[in-house]
Amino acid sequence: MNQLITPTTQFTDRLVREAERAKITAVSRTSAWALEKKGLFPKRRKLHADSDRVCWLLSELLDFVKSREVINMERPQ
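and the corresponding structure tokens:
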């Protein structure tokens, strides 16, 4: 008997550094910092306890992008 196999997408979260964060969100470093201070942007995470290097979770950045307002480009009639 043939069974239908449904492909599943498995999402694994990962860490994103500054350069990739800027490409994903299209938000400058200064604006991201200001939005983060207001609680409107995902919080940075330290890569290592003894380091100043930071990163973000990809899933949180994608949620931020999805939460942005969609612009209606249609002209009013």
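(Above: one complete record from the training split.) The helical segments are 18-25, 29-37, 58-67.
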